[in-house]
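Reading a protein record of the kind used here takes little practice once its layout is understood. The reader may check this reading against the record printed directly beneath this paragraph.
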Amino acid sequence: MTLRMNSLQLMILGPLPIRILAGLTLLLHGLPKITDISGVQSFFPNLGLPPELAIPVTLLEVIGGLALLLGILTRIASGLIIIEMIGAVVVAKLSKGFVGGYELEFLIVAICISLFISGPGRISIEYDLLKREIFPRGKQLVDSLRQKSALS
């Protein structure tokens, strides 16, 4: 058995560590908001946001974090999280600068862009249990791009 991995094997396994990291980060940021949703609702007007937005934002962080962690609905969750993180930067973090401000949000955006492009990877509920990706056109697009790049 050889220890060398080809690039396709790395692409298959590559999303796993970043998916786990982003999923845990979002989950651990969302769970405290669930336990103190009234505090989050009272904080949102300070940012110029309606308090009703606290519930969907909190649910996206918890459910989206779980989705990334488990590898189910990965592309959909990633797209929604990208939108939320960009919103968080524009509304709350931009004035603080990159370091100590929005570096975490940008890191999560970068991870989610990668997951949006690559999908959940081989070790995921979508591939292991369902034997298919729930958002199949995304997989078809990535597979066709892989074939084109292999030909050139």
